[in-house]
Amino acid sequence: MSKRILSGMQPTSQLHLGNYLGALKNWVKFQEEPGTTCLYMVADLHAVTVPYETGELSKATREIAAAFIAAGINPQKSFIFVQSAVPAHSQLMWMLSTMAQLGKLQRMTQFKDKAGKNTERVGLGLFAYPVLMAADILVYKATHVPVGEDQKQHLELSRDLAATFNTRYGVEFFPQPEPVITGPAPRVMSLRNGNEKMSKSAESDMTRINLTDDADMIAQKIRKAKTDPDPLPEKLEDLANRPEALNLVTIYAALSGETREQVLKKFAGQQFSVFKPAFVDVAVEKLAPITRRMKELMDDPSQIDKILAKGNEKANEEAAPIVREAMKIMGFYS
Question: How far apart are CA 286 and CA 326, in angstroms?
């Protein structure tokens, strides 16, 4: 059976190492699977559900697209497009919203987290975010969706809405999208605090390695990354109470393609003064080409615009007929 994989990222700010290891690296692999269609979107409609800088949105959209391409997503093999450039997303979202139950939306943990104590004051967009996500998936009849822990609930809603549509209208129109299990993604933590996740929103830029960092900056951040005075152990379990050391070993392993056990075997008994230079070499080797390609693309935005224009056209060609057929099933005038 052929797969149709849909995923996306919001153009909120710079992508970092955690985004690459947790998502982009896998997206590149998916496009090489025989019989698989990959659709990767810049999710700008989702980005405006919370306060944002209007002057930065289009620039951030290009930057995210550049990161997709630089990381290895091939426009000849995968769809790379902008969510807002495909009206079918919004059309289907409205149609599905007539079937979405308020109770289920109110129980979405991500809505609770983002709204906090201001649930009476947040916009409808934030509340209805999971319905738009369902439309993103179903408008291409995607069969598989890579999701993190924070998005599993939303995928379940997508499955519920697909089933509701099919049952209500007595059809087998929308497939039940399945989560893509890629194995445990490396948990990439802050370079300054091994107990905090690496984040785009962290105040200090030294806590993360951005995909736009050049080789010198990557090296500087790794050299200044927090460690402890003890040498690296032979066994992984001996890093249980050493979060910063565990984080650096985890990142090294993910970039080098080795297991953490193999990394420890290589550096057992060595101090971080030995480990960090080797870590710099691996990180620069893997990330510097991405950085260079991103810079080339951002220095000539017309390259990105051409790729997105083609991707938008292809995405519209895929999505528009599915929405038209859904409207016909629902009984709309045509």
Answer: 44
Q: What H or E segment, with its residue span, contains residue 7?
A: strand 3-9
Q: How far apart are CA 7 and CA 210, in angstroms?
A: 21
Give CA–CA dist 201/196, Å, rounded.
12
In this structure, the strands spanning 36-42 and 3-9 are parallel
Spell out the residues 6+ positions from residue 55 whose beta carbon is closer than 8 angstroms to its own. none
What are the phi and psi torsion angles at 16 (to 5°)? -130, -175
Q: Which of 305, 299, 296, 239 is nearest to 272 (CA)?
A: 239
Question: CA–CA distance from 263 to each of 42, 169, 198, 247, 274 (Å)?
Answer: 35, 56, 21, 12, 13
Distance of CA 99 to the CA centre of its chain: 27
Rounded-to-integer distance, Cα 127 and Cα 88, Å? 20
Task: Using a pLDDT cut of 70, give the percent of the chain over it.
Answer: 93
pLDDT tens digits for 109-143? 766 566 666 666 777 888 888 999 999 999 999 99
Catalytic residue positions, numbered:
114, 197, 200
> Does the pLDDT value for residue 68 go beyond 70?
yes
Global model pTM greater than 0.70: yes
Q: CA distances (Å), 159 to each of 51, 108, 144, in order?
A: 29, 15, 11
Mean pLDDT of 43-60: 91
186, pLDDT greater than 80 = no
In whole angstroms, what is the distance from residue 94 CA to residue 99 CA?
A: 9
Q: Please state, in angstroms and rounded to a whole number, the distance separating the CA atoms of residues 198 and 219.
A: 17
* Sheet of 178-180, strands arranged across: 78-82, 36-42, 3-9, 144-146, 178-180
